[in-house]
Amino acid sequence: MTKQQKAEIVDLLTAEFKTSQAIVVCDYKGLTHKELEVLRNDARANGTKVQVVKNTLVTVAARNADLGDVELSGTNIFLWSEDQIAACKVADSFASANKEKFVIKSGIIEGKVANLATVIAFAKLPSRDQLLGMLAATWMAPLTNFTIGLDALRRQKEETAA
After folding, report:
1. pLDDT at 66
2. What is the pLDDT of residue 40?
3. 124: exposed, middle or buried (Cβ count in 10 Å: 0-12, 13-18, 19+)
4. pTM of the model
């Protein structure tokens, strides 16, 4: 790989990392190409990007994106997303399905280095869409109860009138 290619990769990763809210670092040693494709398809469906990059290039890109110094070693695959929860969920679900070959090492969430426990905790949170659904249900509950009450009152009035 030439210096120009490395510089292009670092620039691309720096731009991606600046806009992402979560970066998850995982060990993928032993996965087949087909298994990696399953990960990539799942990530794509959830708005998460996946790439295998040299550790030194990611370290430089993270430093350029003001994410601090990240210590990387071994074979790593990187997942990142603008949604903190999505990247963590994709990594956690794939790690659960491939326990011996895919291991979450650490991550960077909201610009701070996160350990394995933090990444898994974020993966267990409801997604943005689920949270919006819960909020809508909470807002609709008083209106629903009010209409049920009005309907019961209408039935009672009809029964007493008849």
Report:
1. 86
2. 93
3. exposed
4. 0.75
57-93 pLDDT, tens digit each:
998 998 888 887 778 888 889 999 988 888 999 999 9
The phi, psi pair for 32, rounded to 5°, reads -85, 170
Which residue do the tokens 């993928």 mark? 28
Paired tokens of 42: 């799942």
Q: For 115-154, write each residue's pLDDT tens digit.
A: 888 888 888 888 778 888 888 888 888 888 888 888 888 9
3-state SS class at 70: coil
Segments of 44-137 assigned E as strands: 48-51, 76-81, 103-109, 112-114
Strand partners, 80: 23, 49
Q: For residue 157, which amino acid is it? A: K
Separation CA 65–CA 23 (nearest Å)? 12
For 6-44, b/e burial (b = at least 16 CB within 10 A) is eeebbeebbebbeebbbbbbbbbeebeeebbeebbebbe
Q: Quote the pLDDT of residue 49.
A: 93
Long-range contacts of residues 37-43, Cβ cutoff 8 Å, at least 24 apart: 38/94, 39/77, 39/90, 39/94, 39/102, 42/90, 42/93, 42/94, 43/79, 43/87, 43/90
Q: Read off the tokens for 116.
A: 């394995």
